[in-house]
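Quick one: structure for this chain?
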Amino acid sequence: MAILETFHRTQYEEFLDGAQSWFAYLRENTPILEVDGTLAVNYFVGKLSARVTNKCVTLLRFLVELRRVCGTQEYVELEAGLMAFVDSVQMKSGELPYAVHQTSDLETRPHFQCYQYNAFEYLNLVRYHELTGEARSRRIAERIAEFLPQGLDRDGSAFFDCSHGPRRVVYHGVAVATALSVSAARGREPHADLARTSMEWALGRQRSDGAFTYLLRDSGFLADRRCYPRNHSMILMHLLTASQLAGPANESITAGSAVLPSSPIEGAV
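Got it. Here's what it folds into:
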């Protein structure tokens, strides 16, 4: 998606070629599983396994961004199948499960880093709805928004998963805070205070050199204060997203402007 956005902003064809090459690799090497009229992304390359909800939502976001920048309608049926899968597996709580086995519910893994994945999925589904107006994406996203506040402890830190143990990953907090900020901007005003508290907790873990601690309270007392580029990239992306939203939920964020435009696809319903 970053490559697609770079193409959109620069019109350098090599970026579009790179994004399309990645998608070609995905289609050739990672099975798209068809179950009960839905389509889902397989967990592993070259090995049949579980269907992974976050991969499906991420691919939906990629496909709609591809449609935005080059106008292709080639993958609309794939989008519909992926959305049907995501819709079919959402739990009563609003949570989207981590992985669903293709044949047996007994082999499903519903919970893994629950709140950060659902924050990612919320933001991607909101973006999908912004660009298409597709009704299911909004409904699924709104139910995730109802679930996310359960992921915050009283100090604003984000729980690692639904077991609500002591482990805290700092970038999880930034992701959840950003999702709640977007939710507040979309009309859920009570989420503004939650977002502010969560963001303040996460920003309080930033070091004087700008880096963030990775992990706290593992096994109750261990910490990992090393810097990982992937986590810092995610933190930066979410801070930039949150910083474009006006309101008290984000007044402590001093990052720059938005990284993604919000204009819809021309002709979308």
